[in-house]
Amino acid sequence: LSAVRYTGVSGTPFRQEQHRRAVPPGQEETVTMTVTYAEYGPHVGDQDALKLTAAGVVEETGQVVAKELRVRLHAPELTLTLLAPAVVGQETPVQVVFQNPLPETLSGATLRMEGAGISCPKPFQM
């Protein structure tokens, strides 16, 4: 498992597992891997993805099988709600909701609203 930059360049793998299985004819074998934010968080940036590479070797024939999966990490959405009717030339209260999905506190964020008719966007420190 490694991080993949938005440019497509892979980082150094930060987790590797090796499993040995005997699979009877016509049967499937499942291997599960759980990756926590604490494990992958230090390796990914804002626009990165995770790349999982699985490879197997059939001992009897030496045949190699491999598969790669890229997992795009999605940022949570902002929810915007008008709290009163919007009237030209008047201030309009807006509610912005952001839910932190991470197991750690976020700090130092700035909210900045832009749009038609907003002449001087004012950053709001959070």
UniProtKB/TrEMBL annotation:
One of its GO terms (molecular function) is protein-glutamine gamma-glutamyltransferase activity. The keyword Iron-sulfur does not apply. The keyword Acyltransferase applies. Residues 3-67 form the Transglutaminase C-terminal domain. It comes from the Eukaryota. Its EC number is 2.3.2.13. SUPFAM superfamilies: Transglutaminase, two C-terminal domains (SSF49309). Keywords: Acyltransferase, Transferase. It is an enzyme of class 2 (transferase). This is protein-glutamine gamma-glutamyltransferase. It comes from Haliaeetus albicilla. The gene is Tgm1_1.
